[in-house]
Please model this.
Amino acid sequence: MTTYVHFKFEIDADGIALVTWDMPGKTMNVIDIAVTDELDAIVTRVASDAAIKGAIITSAKESFGAGADLNMLENLNVTYRALLATKGEEAAAKAVYDESSRISRIIRRMEAGGKPWVAAINGTALGGCFEITLACHYRVAGQNPKARVGLPEVKVGVFPGGGGTQRIARMMNTQDALQFLFKGDQHTLERAKMMKLVDAIVPMEEMIPAARAWIKAGVWPKNEKGLIAAPWDLKDFKGPGGKIYSPGGMMTWPPANAIYRRETYDNYPAARAILQTVYEGLQLPMDLALRVESRWFANVLRTPQAAAMIRSLFVSMQALNKGIKRPAGAPKSNLKKIGVVGAGFMGAGIAYVSAAAGLDVVLIDRDQEAADKGKAFSQKLISDRVAKGRATGAERDALLARITPTTDYAMLGDVDLVVEAVFEDRKVKEPVIKAIAAAVKPGVAIASNTSTLPITSLAAYSPKPEQVVGIHFFSPVEKMLLVEIIRGKATGDAAVAVAMDFVKAIKKTPIVVNDSRGFYANRCVGNYILEGHLMLMEGVPPAMIENAAKMAGMPVGPLSLNDEVAIDLALKVMKAAKADLGEKAVNPAQEKLLTFMVETKGRLGRKNGKGFYEYPDKGQPKFLWPGLSEIVGKALKPDQVDVEELKQRLLVTQALEAARTVEDGVVMDPREADVGSILGFGFAPWSGGTLSYIDFMGTAKFVELCKKLEKKHGARFKANKQLVEMAKTGETFYGRMMGDAAKAA
Ligand code: NAD
Model:
């Protein structure tokens, strides 16, 4: 009897095959080439061996399976590019189609092979793995509150290519199906059962017996040959969504198209392909529909957007989360207790995420009242979670018991790390850092959450500058996934390693950058906001600025973003830059605007309910402040404005700054720039991030674009020297910084 490496295959006395997926050496099952080969053989065997009456597929891992191995999809894209160069478009496209549609064809043979297949879902089943279960004739899940099912492919720039779009669209009404596919959410088993995506949920130990019993009972729909068949393969099948060309279809499709445009601005080929495949597929019998899906899938896989998103949002993010940037050889830290000094807006958030991760927290402020207020923030957040059923009362009590608010620095005597988050003022930070250094055990890392002050200068306040490091959080701390770790000139490896271990413990993604004013993220974001300000001062209607930003793929417009981070802060940062670097460091038009907003009009942003937007009472949407016209003077008419150029300016100014951080030695790895830009400030995810935006456009083309913008809008668009050099040979950032392996992408 044939054995398999990735599956256990057992046949019981009733002729029912139990196929248990268990990839050796992996914590989770994924679909890779070896698994595809074996599944192919198993499906053939079940269909052709007369002694086998039916099959159950399950997993021996904690979860059922995580989906397709995205490294495999990334390689397919690399193969495509290589073949395109050597054999031409047709051969390259065919190779991608043949390979990427294979799993869909195998899954279809499970469904249409004439023997019953049951999915015994023992845990989370996502993407391609969930698609395997959708092709089974019956899905029984074992009770498991942690289990989730769903098709999240769209989040990394692709879409379900294993029949998922077609089966979901035949199992749900079209509106729900499109939502399911567009959003890529993960659902609990109970929800999946309500959506009829899971047939039964039973106690875990009854799952396999229930699967067997279903096969033995033999009650299932049969086709004209008397064989088991999926509902959609039966004559006269009517899906819950009805026909496309019907009154119901007319109610669904025009709004679906509009919602797609509103949500994506047509920036995501995968989302567009979902609409196309469902629309076309629902008009065809299943075999043809699946071919349509496969064609779109191969098509999307070849797009730069899919390549860029898989690379940044999956491959690179996974690498960064694994800690590839952790200094080699630094001993693993055993973090149990941390100190947070400054219990304000940021410190309170840092205390919350740390306590939520199981760390004890000493939370210090100037007086007990301020420290208590910092802890009250955790009380509020966790109580909200309890109210929503996302945490238990016991979890709330344990979390709060871990936070000790105090004014006593002596309590830092047994902490493993301190994060300083006091006022952004050197005069305040200096004595605080000195007091921390005097209170902690020797060698304990002291981290500053400063947004602008160079870490090297703050490190000088400690007798041991090597223990000082930057840990730059983004607000709101409990939501934002990125943390920027800053290495000052004197920062030691041990401090960087502890910072990384801390970021891992609180389940955020770290990037490690070298010291500079604004570090990495704020340099790029600062440019984005500046560009919005300058557009405003040119007379571009503010609504056009905000909309152009969204059309370019940014989650919020620059004016809206400035309101969130506070306009007075922008003015403070500008004044500090002017004091340190002189007049030239600031843009006079921006200075005029910020001074007007803050000093003349007292408009500080969302925090005082007055910014570029007006914030009416609760429940009413914000709207752009009409008084902006007072400072702008004569507004341009919308048709005098080139929207494409606005979009370019907003992205190019950020990407160009990212390129400068590379030349300045601040960013040392393109993956950190890319992942950091998407997680930290929402840089157009379709592009794969700031440096991928340049790489996929082509360095030469990007430099051309910079030249065009420089001519029209000034020196801030001047491409830096290194970029110009790279453009001459068409060098990419990934090629330059990561070697040959990355060049093909
Ligand atoms: P905040 O004003 O809300 O909080 C500062 C806290 O520090 C206050 O509670 C204050 O009482 C306390 N404090 C002041 N002097 C102190 C002292 N001598 N000893 C102990 N506590 C003292 O400010 P914030 O927005 O939380 O910013 C804190 C730091 O985080 C700053 O360095 C800021 O640049 C940085 N940061 C802010 C953001 C943001 O979006 N607000 C983002 C990233 C980084």
About this structure: Residues 341-347, 364-366, 370, 421-424, 428, 432, 449-451, 473, 475, 565 surround nicotinamide-adenine-dinucleotide (CB under 6 Å).
